[in-house]
Design brief:
This protein has 58 residues and is an all-alpha fold. It contains 1 helix and no strands.
């Protein structure tokens, strides 16, 4: 009788972990929208300037 209680508790724990994992994976899949190749940046507000690099003096 005690083994049935342990099995039921084990099954319940496995079910809870499986639900949590499914929930986590479902939330993570929402970030796959970037795979369509479209960038979120379409226009820039600043004029295009050539970057200037200077050496540190000292």
């Amino acid at each position: 009788m005690s083994t049935e209680g342990k099995d039921a508790a084990s099954d319940e724990m496995k079910r809870k972990f499986r639900e949590a994992l499914d929930k986590k994976n479902a939330r993570g899949r929402s970030g796959e929208a970037h795979l369509d190749g479209d960038s979120a940046v379409h226009a820039t507000n600043a004029p295009q300037m050539k970057r200037e690099f200077r050496r540190k003096s000292g």
